[in-house]
Amino acid sequence: MFDIIIIGGGAAAASAALTAKSRGKSVAAVANGIETTALWRAELISNYPGTPDITGRELASAMRAQLEAAATVITGRALSIMPMGDTFGAAVENEFCMARAVIIAAGITREKLYRGEAEFLGRGVSYCATCDGMLYRGKKVALIGSSDEARRDGDFLESIGCEVVRLERSAQYEISGEERADTVSFSGESIKVDGVFIIKDTVSVAKLVPGIEYKNGGIVTDGAMATSVPGVFAAGDCRGKPFQLAKAAGEGNIAALSACEYIDSLKI
Ligand SMILES: Cc1cc2nc3c(=O)[nH]c(=O)nc-3n(C[C@H](O)[C@H](O)[C@H](O)COP(=O)(O)OP(=O)(O)OC[C@H]3O[C@@H](n4cnc5c(N)ncnc54)[C@H](O)[C@@H]3O)c2cc1C
User: Fold this and answer.
1) For the domain 2-110+203-266, what is the CATH code?
2) pTM of the predicted model as reported, rounded to 2 decimal places
């Protein structure tokens, strides 16, 4: 059990981890690879105090090293955060970890959802073959994904007896059904399936925590970075514009202070 789980591995996450550690809290950070951070793609950063004209990669590497020093970094994709009384469980591919508070610092998800994806998530649509594959043993499933991970997940599903229809990420799909998803349609064709696995690098931040308020492209918070779900805080680009480094770092700091205060209040 950690005090705080941070979802993300960019500037907001590093800042939050440093602050939480300095307040004596144990921190886990669930983070995709450094190359997925916004900073990694920035050619030159000239407006961040203390580091005149530094490449995005240099600064991202320095921040990742700080994150690793301040937190236990679990490399992978967080699939969902589940409130469990006064604690939270985070499903991370095939791992599970728990904490008293959560900070979402997951940046922006630029990918559009497929039609029907959000509606049928948890009702025939899954983001995780390892977690849900057994439910589809002996059944026919569609697997949408083009990455190495998607290929491995397809192999895994076949190894447990699923009939797997592999589909490229780039096409436009519609997922439909009644109570549960049972059809994938694309380019005038429809396939009947028992389930649909969608394998991508990120999970929409709006879907990470059940019931979290999300509006105008960002997670809604108050000035203390508290979201609509008690114990869950958000920081950085996932809160919305402006998408700026100094804002992400500042919000990570505030979110961590608020999370620490929240945890301390639980102990009274
Ligand atoms: C090309 C470019 C140039 C820029 N130039 C500047 C500039 O000059 N000055 C400036 O101030 N700002 C600039 N920015 C903006 C700045 O880089 C961002 O605002 C800031 O880095 C955002 O940090 P973040 O931590 O909020 O998000 P990110 O850096 O996006 O980090 C989020 C991380 O969380 C990971 N993640 C998401 N979902 C999950 C999940 N479910 N499980 C695990 N990990 C997950 C992502 O893969 C990513 O690694 C630029 C951005 C870009 C793209």
Assistant:
1) 3.50.50.60
2) 0.82
